[in-house]
Write a structure and sequence with these properties.
binds 2-phosphoglycolic acid, 8-stranded parallel beta barrel
């Protein structure tokens, strides 16, 4: 039985003070929640990692970043290393989000290097994959997502792949209000798990958690999260409001 996993991706929202207040509200909204039922992770912008860590450090809520660079240190102006994230309390990092692929030119090869580097610092990557609307309309979603998964987890051994959280996020569902149906999502999750089985084995693939992301909100989360292969959610818009984020978690 895989433990459910809910992560809030705050994207480029919330300044230092807003982040503090939102983290306080989320923690407060989960005082009655039994964390045996789900891992809960907050992913604020880099500038708020420290303050959010201060808020959640005495609770089961965990900290994640939204990006990482694949070198250890050096002359890479503007980049943040895995060691820096680890030192500020991060247990997780989102890698390969479609917005990074789309606006910052991240390729599967770059993302693979980031996955490997994060693991080297004992940070669990939340690896994002997903097809565009054009690709789904052309019925190429399995080709696209399959290639992303295979290339982004290249050179990982079995103990490492079990530490990776995979997030299936169809690009057409992100921030649009149009979520994938539970059937579309579950079919893709099964497909992804099948690739892990093929590359490793069934015992390993049965342990890998696969999240759905893309317009998940309280009104659709229960159905999505009750599917056989949907192990949690990566939540953008609905994670910026403590009420909706904690409702999704409490409804698991
Ligand atoms: P959304 O974003 O929930 O606002 O659709 C999800 C994501 O991009 O991770």
């Amino acid at each position: 039985m895989r433990k459910k996993f809910i992560a809030g991706n705050w994207k480029m929202n919330t300044n230092y003070k807003d982040s503090h207040d939102l983290a306080e509200q989320i923690k407060g909204g989960l005082t009655e929640f039994d964390y045996e039922n789900a891992d809960v992770v907050l992913c604020p912008p880099f500038t708020s990692l420290s303050i959010v860590n201060d808020v959640i450090v005495d609770s089961p809520v965990m900290l994640g970043a939204q990006n990482v660079f694949y070198e250890d240190d050096g002359a890479y102006t503007g980049e943040i290393s895995a060691g820096m994230l680890r030192a500020v309390g991060c247990n997780y990092v989102i890698v390969g989000h479609s917005e990074r692929r789309q606006y910052f030119g991240e390729t599967n090869d770059i993302i693979n290097k980031k996955v490997l580097k994060a693991l080297g610092y004992e940070i669990n990557p939340i690896l994002c994959v997903g097809e565009t609307l054009e690709e789904r309309d052309g019925e190429r979603q399995e080709d696209v997502v399959g290639k992303q998964v295979r290339e982004c987890i290249a050179n990982l051994n079995a103990p490492d792949i079990e530490k990776v959280i995979i997030a299936y996020e169809p690009v057409w569902a992100i921030g649009t209000g149009v979520n994938a149906t539970s059937e579309q999502a579950n079919d893709m999750h099964k497909f992804i798990r099948g690739i892990i089985t093929e590359l490793y084995d069934e015992k390993t693939s049965s342990k890998v958690r696969i999240l759905y992301g893309g317009s998940m909100k309280p009104s659709n989360s229960k159905e999505l999260l009750s599917q056989s292969d949907i192990d949690g959610g990566l939540i953008g818009g609905a994670s910026l409001e403590a009420g909706s984020f904690t409702e999704i978690i409490r409804n698991i």
